[in-house]
Design brief:
By secondary structure, the protein is an alpha+beta fold. The protein is built from three helices and six strands, in the order ααββββαββ. It has one domain (about 35-150). Strand 1 (about 70-75) and strand 2 form a beta hairpin. The chain is elongated.
Length: about 150
């Protein structure tokens, strides 16, 4: 499912996941002549749009959980509450056919991971403050379709 560790472990887990996907796909390279198949037009890949929606739903749930367990730290100017959230829509959600054995399609989902903060003179004031986006990271997730389902 989704990584649960700190920021550094999330990045490391994503890198390892991408490396694993590349190894599983036999380091398949896209050639200039390979046709990109939009998720809505490809047989079997038409479900990737729904898969992206489902994945974004998991991210929304994760953001709610992150907000509940937000990090609270005291600073010289008061209290800072921080957590990780996600953009409300996919920046990219498309699939293409694959020539890799055992994989019919490759899907790419791109979205924003957002670092939020609330600041205040006290914990109570910080909780009432409007959240501010302090970091924005574009995340690319790569999935494969085995003929029956999408796999992370």
């Amino acid at each position: 499912m989704l990584p649960a560790g700190g920021r550094r472990s999330v990045v490391l887990e994503r890198l390892l996941s991408m490396l694993l996907v590349l190894l599983l796909l036999g380091a398949h390279q896209v050639t200039a002549g390979e046709k990109q198949v939009p998720a809505k037009n490809a047989p079997g890949a038409h479900r990737f749009g729904k898969f992206c929606e489902s994945w974004l739903g998991k991210l929304r749930k994760r953001e709610r959980d992150n907000r509940k367990s937000a990090k609270v730290r005291k600073t010289a100017s008061g209290v800072v509450i921080s957590w990780i959230g996600y953009g409300d829509r996919a920046l990219q959600c498309k699939a293409r056919s694959s020539r890799a054995p055992g994989t019919q399609f490759i899907g790419k989902l791109k979205y924003n991971e957002l670092g939020y903060e609330r600041r205040g003179s006290s914990r109570r004031a910080a909780l009432k403050a409007k959240p501010v986006v302090v970091t924005r990271t574009e995340v690319l997730e790569i999935f494969r379709h085995d003929g029956s389902r999408w796999i992370y």
